[in-house]
Amino acid sequence: MLTDNFLVVVALLLFIAVLAGKAAYRLGAPALLLFLGVGILFGYNDFINFNSSEFAEFVGMIALCIILYSGGMDTNFKEIRPVMAPGVVMATLGVILTALIVGGFIYLVAPLFGLENLTLPFALLLAATVSSTDSASVFSILRTKKQGLQQNLRPLLELESGSNDPMAYILTVVLVSIVSQGTDLNLWSAVGTFIVQMLLGAGLGYGFGRVTVWMLNNINIRSNTSLYSVLLLACAFFTFGITTMAYGNGYLAVYIAGLVVGNLKIVHRNMLRTFFDSFTWLLQIVLFLLLGLYADLQDLLSPEVIFMGIAIGLFMIFVARPVATLISLSPFRQFTTKARLYISWVGLRGAVPIIFAIYTINNGVENSDYLFNVVFVITIISLLVQGTTVSGMANWLNLSFTEKERTFKLVVPDHIKSEFSEIEINNAMLKRGNTLKDIRLPGHTLVVMVYRAGEYFVPKGDTILSKGDKLLVVSDNNDELIKQVTEMGVENIIKM
Q1: 151-190 pLDDT, tens per residue?
Q2: In terms of DSSP H, where are the helices of 77-225?
Q3: How many CB atoms lie within 10 A of CB 12?
Q4: How far is CA 352 from CA 59, 166, 319, 348, 458, in A?
Q5: 128 by DSSP, 3-state: which?
């Protein structure tokens, strides 16, 4: 009977979370914020009693592992290559600067909130837990908006959020040791730990990524292709676990491994991406619901928590993040002032800071419950202020453009060598005549479908075409096709 009740409660929470996600899309709010809200609502007055910090941290580790792996798989390396250097600097120096600036602010304003005994190490620890942008928040919001960003901003923001957790994690671990054990900060030891963790994380992540690709392409599970998803999931967990056991950073390793897998040819790519996309959303929902359930609304609304959290959150948004961004990006001249302002604005906080705060609870840090509650409020402030204005800020700064949406929802298997493109007919293409056979196309190219006024049909040579018709074209010489239609002034070309 207990099991039945548990399943009903889980199903109810997931159902409400899905409805909240739909409502969030219509309202322009981050879905993750509403997931948190649902968790807090059901946890109020112990309607659903959940108080296991160890289990919450465990679920957070699993969720972040998959979120980062899936994020790496969905990231095009060609897009992040031009922004690799600024992305890495933002993920390291930017995190350190944010932690120092916010830590100093907390230490200075603490007496104003009746916290005269708050020490500098504790202030820095609180700042370290919120010093990195959250990959779950950034990935979900940027990709849900389906909004294009100029100056390679989306790849940069996704690269930063996917790779800056290791720096924040190392700062948190070091400061937990200092606060809980009273040890002095050994700067060279901390730097050495960071270098080892980053090098091992990057190296093992790349190595496991290549091994994963080889396994997927050679294991040959034709009897049940669904097992490829299970295999890839095992590889993701294996990458994280072995890297962590080797004292490398598992979060960086899974992101890089996902990046390798996503940018090399693998069998059943589309099926695997669909599985990981769905599984990632499930884990995000479960994670944010659990974090909401774990939080105590009465503690969050206590004056010493709510006012401190709001003060830190606003200071981070309007001072610390912009200053850290401007300093970190100062050597890189390819970004305009508007782009730098937008990068500083998309410093979203989410699950990662809350998980780091739970880490302090599980390691017996004094006043860790207070730290957790303040971090939770900071996260809510960030999602409310920044998360709801990601799209609007891009429009206001004239950095956005409408992404081309595919008319033909085609899934092309990896083993097909021919390439598919979507082309919109313009007047120049019809100069020689308005039938399909009159349009000049390269050899080994075939128009397989036409879209017109909401209808799809297979064309013939004498099919009459009109401006605005969209063609699904398959070609063995796609580069020549793109070049030829571009010379005719066609701008709406989408490669499948």
Answers
A1: 888 888 888 888 888 888 888 988 888 888 766 666 677 7
A2: 77-80, 84-109, 120-129, 135-145, 153-163, 165-181, 187-218
A3: 12
A4: 12, 11, 21, 10, 50
A5: helix
